[in-house]
């Protein structure tokens, strides 16, 4: 019977669980080294408006693992959240982005560009977060409105009072706030009204099947309408086709991010890309 089945097994852990634990331990060990030896890099993905003007970039972290090569964030951010390494990693991302903004502030062709930075739950909830943002923006000279902090719905709903207080503090510093992956969390109008947001980002999952899914079309139209009603800027992520772009424009969304325009790229490729893009579109 089930009651006795455990008796003869040699170990509580199955081989699968064992290897999962080993992998987790190795990932954590490697991540620690990555923080120490600075193995991270920021890639930048363009954000483009309806007139084909690049308005900003999203900073997306990459990890150059000494053996595995380039590791995408979905393979390590979750772990970094669990073991606390997200705090130094997140600080590094913010610093790097602000440093870049201060470089761009000195050049006419880049001075208006914004950088969006992803912030995770544990980072946002950490007591020192507000202070670390304020000291970073103080250290580099640029207009803080060029910095957009991306938060997600799920990290905002518990302890709304504190969330709103933190967000208001950030807005006092002049930073902009964006709600990432919008539509995949709670999406309640009630809290949307309470949160001091500058931007909503329509999640990629609604954009990717605009062509075939009637429901996704309704959701996208509703989000656009809602953000306009609330006076919040709206951007669509994961735009991959001209069809998606024109549908979005038709329904009042005029900011886009996605492979249709450009993939995330290292800084070393960015200035050539920007120049080429503006030449292509301003003929
Ligand atoms: P996200 O913030 O929603 O970022 C968008 C993700 O969608 C990026 O993946 C980007 O490469 C991908 N993407 C953009 N356009 C398209 C498209 O047209 N088609 C498809 N199929 N994908 C597209 P990436 O860079 O792998 O990042 C994944 C997630 O990792 C991000 O989702 C974000 O939640 C997290 N992340 C990235 N960088 C950081 C960071 O510095 N800190 C934290 N806490 N999280 C980060
Ligand atoms: Mg994001
Ligand atoms: Mg997103
Ligand atoms: Mg996403």
From TrEMBL:
It comes from the Bacteria. Residues 24-278 form the EAL domain. Belongs to the hemerythrin family. This is cyclic-guanylate-specific phosphodiesterase.
